[in-house]
Amino acid sequence: MANYLVFAFYFQAFGIFTVLCSVEPNIVYEWETVDLVWPNSSVKEEYIQSKKFIPENNAINGIKMYKDNIYLTIPKLKDGVPFSLVKIQNDASKNPLLIPYPNWDIQLEGDCSKMRLIQSMEIDPYTGYMWIIDTSFVPRAGINIADQCPSKIIIWDLENDVEIHRHTFPVNVTGPGMFYLNDIVLDFNSNKTARWAYISDTLGHRLIVYDRELDISYAFSHPSMKPVQEYASITIGNVTNAYSPLGINGIAMSSDLKNVYYCPLAGVGLYRIPTALLRKSSSNNTDFGREVIHVGNKMVQSDGIYYGKKHNLYYSTLGPRSVYQWSMTPISDNVKPGRQTEIAKDDRIEWIDSFAFDESGYLWFVSNNLNTHFSNDTIKGSSNFFVWKLFVDDSSYLKFSDDTSSAPSYSLDVFVCMFILLCSFNFW
Questions:
Q1: Where do transmembrane segments lie in this chain (predicted)?
Q2: Residue 117's closest CA among 212, 181, 72?
Q3: pTM higher than the cut 0.85
């Protein structure tokens, strides 16, 4: 009888253990080159002939989910990218057409009020508001002054397809000089209202804060946000490329809303900073330096990172082509986080850019071969862009309202101990 009581006690945790060990990532969508839903064939032909649409130059990057829709970004980092934000709506095909979102007009070339260069977005599940960061243009030599629109954040109501609010970043926040708004996480008031957005500026090496209630923005700089020369080169397959200018990139919010985690692309260090400091516009870089903590080092360089409700941090490995889970169970400053565990590996997982969660315990992510995309070395006749899902029995940090303070998080060591214990009772 005692054997069965022990078995019952550990059954749930052991079940989670087997899930993490046996699961494989599934390809939901894949494309050699993406295509769009066009008004008609004449419009498509005109875009192709005028080189406003060059299919192979369109690389999907960001991914977020809301109800039955999957939202993707295609940042305008090359010529021939007409739309920066698209969606997939209830499409079971393997390589679906992408629908420009919110509409055609707001993304057409024109004045600075248009959506111009979108890398990432986040969706508030309580309101259906999408927070969209728009870098507007890639700073580079020879760009027309007319194209140097200021960067901005747009809040869009997905339920009613209407803009709620926008904020234009002042030049002392994004600029002057190089900047690129890369990723975004949301922070909430005690009444579950999204108030703050934290944004990584990969080229400006800054962490930007937007306070919606006060409609102000400000930025922090710290050496931890800069690229580390030792890790500036990344080898994927047999090709090595240098990414020396790329600083703070991945950014994640803890599910208790107490800490923001971030890491540079050219680097392996993971850092965290309390939201209590970020929320105060009176905080300065000196304050930031006193509060920032080096959590530890990832296995290798990564791009996007994401935080789950169960206090797990998920990140990709750009060289080994895999996904890792790192336990971040609420810890004191003197306690190291849990073990980093490889939970998925596939040779087709080449350059994971971003993550998202659905409502069923699946972690979704985009891989886009960016390392070969920018060198024009993508392989013709094979898939280059993928949307994956991986069962991890977790959910987004945005589910913080569901008693996340007590949500359990188990490291691999715990599962191994459980496994050995069960074996000792001769259950099989």
A1: none
A2: 181
A3: yes
Annotate the chain with three-state secondary structure: CHHHHHHHHHHHHHHHHHHHHHCCCEEEEEECCCCECCCCHHHHHHHHHCCCCCHHHCCCCCEEEECCEEEEECCCCCCCCCCCEEEEECCCCCCCCEEECCCCHHHCCCCCCCCCCEEEEEEECCCCEEEEEECCCCCCCCCCHHHCCCCEEEEEECCCCEEEEEEECCCCCCCCCCCCEEEEEEEECCCCCEEEEEEEECCCCEEEEEECCCCEEEEEECHHHCCCHHHCEEEECCEEEECCCCCEEEEEECCCCCEEEEEECCCCEEEEEEHHHHCCCCCCHHHHHHHCEEEEECCCCCCCEEEECCCEEEEEECCCCEEEEEECCCCCCCCCCCCEEEEEECCCCCCEEEEEECCCCEEEEEECCHHHHCCCCCCCCCCCEEEEEEECCCCEHHHCCCCHHHCCCCCHHHHHHHHHHHHHCCCC
Which residues, 6+ apart, have CB-to-CB distance to 41 below 8 Å? none
pLDDT, one tens digit per residue, over 69-95 is 999 999 998 889 999 999 999 888 999
Average pLDDT of the residues of the chain: 86
Q: Hey, what amino acid is at 44?
A: K
pLDDT digits (tens, 9 = 90+) for 130-159: 999 999 877 654 555 556 789 999 999 999
Buried b (16+ CB within 10 A) or exposed e, 273-289: bebebbeeeebeeeebe
Q: How far is CA 313 from CA 132, 330, 409, in A?
A: 23, 12, 11
